[in-house]
Amino acid sequence: MSDDIYREIILDHYRNPRNKGKLSNPDVSIHDSNPLCGDEIDIHLKVEQDKIKDIKFEGRGCAISQASASMLTEMIIGRPLNTVKDLTKDDILENIGLMNLGPARIKCALLSLKVLKLSMVKYYSDKDPQSAEKLTDDSKLY
Ligand code: FES
Prior knowledge:
Radius of gyration: 14 Å
Structural class: alpha+beta
Bound molecules: FE2/S2 (inorganic) cluster
CATH topology: Sufe protein. Chain: A
Number of strands: 3
Mean pLDDT: 90
Strand order of the largest sheet: 1-2-3
Distance between the termini: 28 Å
Shape: globular
Number of domains: 1
Order of helices and strands: HEEEHHHHH
């Protein structure tokens, strides 16, 4: 796809975010922000039979951070936790179609992944402390 199409997709997700809002009874809720600009993301997860049964996000900030969060929710809903916990920054950059971002914009694109990893750490810390420890390292994306 061309860069223009990706740009349009990002703007569409920014203007019409998917899965935005709260869950009534989430298994995990995590908030984090980009310390440099103050953009914020909250992720709420419902887990059932080791799958992401439902996910919602809340947030405010730049088009890339918010669109990336929206696209991430679509990417992982219904997926097994053990594939979600191993998502990499390249998976996210590929998903949003922006592989050549500068350092500042990469932080925008990866904010929601960082919050998702923190959510996984919280979820696993009760059930599987060893996985939680590894995820803690992974969550240090920047
Ligand atoms: Fe804050 Fe993009 S400017 S995350």
